[in-house]
Amino acid sequence: MSATSVKPVRIADRDLGPGLPAMIVAEIGINHNGDVNLAKKLVGAASGAGADAVKFQKRTVDVVYSPEELAHPRESPFGETNGALKHGLELGHDEYAELDRFCRSIGIAWFASCWDEASVDFIHEFDPPCYKVASASLTDDALLEHIRSKHRPVVLSTGMSSLEQIDHAVEILGGQNLVVMHTTSTYPSSLEELNLMAIPRLEERYRLPIGYSGHEVGLAPSFAAVVLGACLVERHITLDRAMWGSDQAASVEPQGFARLVRDVRAWESARGDGEKRVYESERPIMEKLRRVG
User: Fold this and answer.
1) Strand partners, 15
2) Calpha distance 239→255 (Å, rounded)
3) Which residue, 164, 181, 94, 88, is CA-closest to 130?
4) Exposed, middle or buried: residue 111 (CB in 10 Å: 0-12, 13-18, 19+)?
5) Could you tell me how far CA 22 lies from the centroid of its own chain?
6) Is 184 helix (H, G, I), strand (E, B) or coil?
7) Where does the pLDDT of residue 92 fall: very low under 50, low under 70, confident under 90, or very high at 90 and above?
8) Which of 72, 107, 157, 182 has the most neighbouring CB atoms within 10 Å?
9) Domains of the chain by range and CATH?
10) pTM of the predicted model, to two decimals?
């Protein structure tokens, strides 16, 4: 399929699509452990590593989870139930306002995965450049419709989803201003289940920009995803993979994130346009070494 048949999507003042520089997003998610100061440190680390944007997660806990699930025993720094943990990990309006000011002060874009309609409205107050649909929310038609009503670009993760389910979600979202993210929803994901060749297949099927959300250990698959055509790459970031938290082990520390950014930018410089040519820099070597029969 020709790259020209895929219309770019504009997010945070940049176009995303085949042949264009990839957007690299540092997923902070809940790695801030409910601490706005830790969240700011993660934003700063992401910016220092060269990330183009950071992403958080927002939930209305009592809407997303059932009372039974919230009452389930689970030890954490916040208490002894799953509900205590989920509430403890959520940042409120004042914390997001502080994060918004901080991100703007250092010039990095931010957005969030919103798991329910109230969270979409909450984040909308901060004028996000796009909305992320988490893989777990792909089949929530009402949420997709509410997100689309905000008239912003949408980034759709497709972990644990069949093609038929993705087809339905794309139909609801309208197929405009939409980036479809290939992902595998295990933390961490095994290499054998990453299935990176789905990236060009999804581009062919939907004629939309395709991204990659990686949860594997290591950097090579995320780099390979860009080589295969991913226009947006998202990896979780942490200050220390040994920190407490469910997503830390599947995250990348700042120095690793910087290497990923470096390698992706090197590939984009080296990729070229595919037309074979003789460069002027080669001519002195050619004249010196080549024999003409």
Assistant:
1) 10
2) 9
3) 181
4) buried
5) 11
6) coil
7) very high
8) 182
9) 19-289 (3.20.20.70)
10) 0.94
